[in-house]
Amino acid sequence: MPRSLISQLTRAEQRELLDDLNYLNTAEIKAFCKNHSIPYAIFAETREGGRKRTGEEDRKGVMLDRMRHFLTTGAILPETCFPAAVVSFDAQDEDLARGDRLLYGQYGKTNRAVLAILKDLTGGKFKDGATARILARDFWSRGEAPTIEAFAAAWIRATREHMRPNPEWAFLSDRANKTAGVDWKSLRNKKARRVLQILGQITTAKR
Question: For residue 180, which of 14, 132, 149, 174 is within the disulfide window of CB 3.0 to 4.6 Å?
């Protein structure tokens, strides 16, 4: 039966380890996930009921959430899979309306029509950056395909509420906290080495 892999650590040591996972880079996170069969590729359901692997992967925060769940419970969460209802790889009509749905497979940097109407609905402020990508994937993961108008409104709210960098953006987060010194890379490497050493000892001992 799955159980915590870090129960032998004190509560303070557990919290420090789980927090310092933020200092791992994407390659280090993926290597750990591969070694322990923790998924990070994104899948999409097909109209026929199958599942198709997309060319995209979970963002860093999602991968870290899966790592933390694995370390604290011993269980592996399923991969991200967008339901067929929010997926379409069909060509989209360029004459869009605010009531049209934002679907995975159609929204992207190359879809100028979608970006143009989102700009229009946000007074020219919309940017196809991290906030928009995270927001869209959150909708699709819940099985929701918002209207373009609803997505624009959600993006405005998200940009207003998102006053500080996400914790997994370690450098930006430390800079916001005024703890990112001139030698931040050395700090990052030191923390990452320590985290990987602890993880290696924990997971080896549990095999």
Answer: 174
